[in-house]
Amino acid sequence: MMAHLEASSPHTMNTYGRLPIALSHGQGVHVWDVNGKRYLDALAGIAVNTLGHNHPKLVPALQDQVAKIIHSCNYYHVPNQEKLAAKLVELSGMTNVFFGSTGLEANEAAIKLARKFGHDRGIERPEIVVYEKAFHGRSIATLSATGNDKVQKGFGPLVEGFIRVPLNDIDALRAATDGNKNVVAVFFETIQGEGGINPMRADYLQKVRELCDMKNWLLMIDEVQCGMGRTGKWFAHQWAGIVPDVMPLAKGLGSGVPIAAVVAGPKAAHIFQPGNHGTTFGGNPLAMRAGVETLRIMEEDGLLDNASRVGAHLKGALARELGGLKGVVEIRGQGLMIGMELAKPCGVLTQRAADAGLLISVTADNVVRLLPPLIMTEAEASEVVGILAPLVRDFLSS
Ligand SMILES: *Cc1c(COP(=O)(O)O)cnc(C)c1O
């Protein structure tokens, strides 16, 4: 019998516009629903399942960890915290790490770091520059930093101390902060994810780095979605050759196990003192093992290069099939973080793609977003386009 899933959640809060699909298991870049239907996964649980599903190296490591110890708490040392932190320090060129469990939690810690950075310098009312269309999470502070009315509506009063500026406009940033002695940090995503795959230009990133150095502000880059190899470098800002002072990470870091990290450079690494910050789940043995093994496997299997190569192939194939078509505004992004902006709202495409056996998302109303596992092959990427292109053509011509 087919499982019917519509309106089948009487006891969970009505927070998500879900498709009537329940996934049961996966293998590589494929997942199956409870009715046995197979899907090609070009979403990876929103940039989370870095290694796809049932990875032959990750699963035994996690099974081993579960049988040893899942959680211990931060009253004690967790050896893999030090191991994962050392690896993130090596990959980022930064110095110290705090571990949490979700993206908003990492961003909340970043905001606290910026505020205390200010207070330590005698700034009583610190202000942080944030961006139009940004998404930083749904806690009260992170939704206040987010640049989307829909996320904020109904939850006022918002947290104060944020100054909002447009993307990629250094003059606007200068003007918005001119003479303001309360500014302590500039905070953005290298490539906005929820906002519609909107990249910051390399020259802009370099200019903001210079400005932050000159003004003694923290440069805080939210790599929760665009980080962890997705663009073909460990962190997307590395394409611009800069190093931030604070970098929140989450989504792809544990390949499906909830985990987050705030990586800090010398300017921010020693702001928190005992008692300033903490969390119960953060850095627990299961999450740390997932992080350590995810990074190890990514290196062993050359997944950064794969993300670059397969991403270029995917974007190229999309451009060939759909670029220039009336109604296709732009195809953008880097590596396996790709957005295709259409001229009209296209939320219906998620269901139509699922019907055709493909998992994608639509964000910012009119941007088809592809975030496949970093293990995807060129042949599988071609298959994604093979399913998607006719759906988009149909959609635009109706
Ligand atoms: C998803 C996301 C967050 C929030 O992460 P959660 O784990 O959902 O709290 C924050 N910033 C960016 C850039 C994200 O993509």
Automatic annotation (TrEMBL):
Example GO molecular function: identical protein binding
Residue positions binding N(2)-acetyl-L-ornithine: 138, 279
Protein name (record): Acetylornithine aminotransferase
Subunit-level organization: Homodimer.
Substrates-to-products reaction catalysed: N(2)-acetyl-L-ornithine + 2-oxoglutarate = N-acetyl-L-glutamate 5-semialdehyde + L-glutamate
Naturally occurring in which organism (per UniProt): Caenimonas sedimenti
Gene that produces this protein: argD
Organism domain of life: Bacteria
Main localization of the protein described in the UniProt heading: cytoplasm
Other facts: May also have succinyldiaminopimelate aminotransferase activity, thus carrying out the corresponding step in lysine biosynthesis.
Entry keywords, A to Z: Amino-acid biosynthesis, Aminotransferase, Arginine biosynthesis, Cytoplasm, Pyridoxal phosphate, Transferase
